[in-house]
Amino acid sequence: MSPENRGFSLPDQGENGRRREGSRAAESAGKPRREQGERVEPGFGGISALSAETLVATGQALLYPAGMSSQQPPSGPEQQIPACIGMLGLMPPLTLEDVKQAYLAKARTMHPDRGGDPAQFILLQKAFDEATEYVRFKAGKLEWLASKIDAYAQQQEVVTETIERGGEVEMEEADWLRKSFGEDFGHVADKLVRVSLRGPAADDLFAILLGFRSESLKDLATLDLAGGSLTDEGLQQLKELKNLRSLDLRGTAVGRLSAEIPQWFERLEFLGLPKGAVGLFGRLGMPRRVRLVVGDASGES
User: Fold this and answer.
1) CB of 203 within 8 A of CB of 234?
2) What tens digit of pLDDT does each residue of 214-254 get?
C-alpha cells in the first residue's frame, strides 16, 4: 500500500528514523496545505479504527503463513510447518496444551521403557521442546501486537486531530518492526515525539484530548501550542504528559498556573510563556535546567 493511499500526505522523511506529517510537512514536499476542518482519515491502513474482527484477522496472518487460515493445513514449499510440529502429528492452529498432549501420547509408545528406540525418543523430546518454543513465539507476537494496537490507535487519534486542525507531528519510526510485520502493521510501535499546533486551533479542547490520551503519549517530548487560545483550564490537562522536554505556550492565555509548570515536568528544558504569565519571583524560582522565554508566538523578551 503506497503512502498516498493511507490518508495522510506523503510523510517527510527526516533524520534518525523520524518523519514529519501535517500541513507544513506537506508544503515542504510540494503538496497543498490542508484547510482546517478538512477530513483526514487515520493512516497506515486505518489501524486506529481496527475492529475486533480486524485484529483477529491480523493475528491469523501473523500466526499462520500467508494464504493459510486457521482451518487449513499449510501447503507449498514456503508454507511448510516446522518439522517439530509435524513430528508430533500436529497442524496449526495449536496451543501449548496441544503440544503437551501430543507429546504425551507419543511418549507412551516411544519411551525406551516401553520398547521404544532411545534415539527416536530423544528426537521426540527435542521436537517437544522446539514446538513449545514455536508456539510461545507465535502467541507472543500476537499478544505483543494486540497490546500495541490500542495505544497506537489512541496515538493516531491525536495525530489525526492535530493535522485536521492544521498542525504538524513528528514520529520516531521503529524500522525493525516492519521487517517482522510488514509495512501496514509495522508502524504500531512508532512513537509520537513532537506535536506542533499554532494559532486559535490550539485550544482547551485540544489540550483535553492530549490529557485524555496521555497514556499513549509517553514519548511526546516537544509540544508547541504557541499563539493558541489555551487557558489555565486547558493547561491543567497537560500535567500527565510527564516526559515533555519542550513546551511552548507563548501568545496563549495561560496565567496563574504557569509558575507551577516546571514542577509537573521533571525533564523540562524549554518553556515558552506569554507576557505577564509569570512575575519576577516566578522567574527567579524557575529551575536552572529550564530555559524560560516570555513573549508572543513569534517573539521573545
Assistant:
1) yes
2) 999 999 999 999 999 999 999 999 999 999 999 999 999 99
- Tell me the three state secondary structure of residue 69: coil
**Residue 142 near residue 63, CB atoms below 8 Å:** yes
C-beta separation of 96 from 135 below 8 A: yes
Last residue of a domain, one of 115, 143, 171: 143
The single residue listed with the C-alpha cell 490520551 is: 213
The pLDDT tens digits of the residues spanning 143-200 come to 767 777 888 899 999 999 999 999 999 998 766 566 556 666 667 778 899 999 999 9
State the total domains in the chain: 2
39 is a domain residue: no
Question: Among 86, 115, 143, where does a domain finish?
Answer: 143
From the CB of residue 205, how many other CB atoms can be counted at a distance below 10 Å? 14
Please report, for the domain that includes residue 105, its CATH number.
1.10.287
Quote the longest CA-to-CA distance of the chain: 90
Is residue 270 within 8 Å of residue 246, measured between CB atoms? Answer: yes
Task: Spell out the residues 6+ positions from residue 148 whose beta carbon is closer than 8 angstroms to its own.
Answer: 188, 189
pTM of the model: 0.60
Residue 274 and residue 179 share a domain: yes
231: CB partners within 8 A, 6+ apart: 204, 252, 253, 254, 255
DSSP characters over 212-258: HTGGG-TT--EEE-TT----HHHHHTTTT-TT-SEEE-TTS---GGG
Q: Please name the residues in contact with 118: beta carbons below 8 A apart, sequence gap of 6 or more.
A: 112
Q: Is 113 in the same domain as 166?
A: no
The whole-angstrom separation of Cα 40 and Cα 134 is: 40
Are 168 and 193 a contacting pair, CB within 8 Å?
no
150 and 213 Cβ atoms separated by less than 8 Å: no
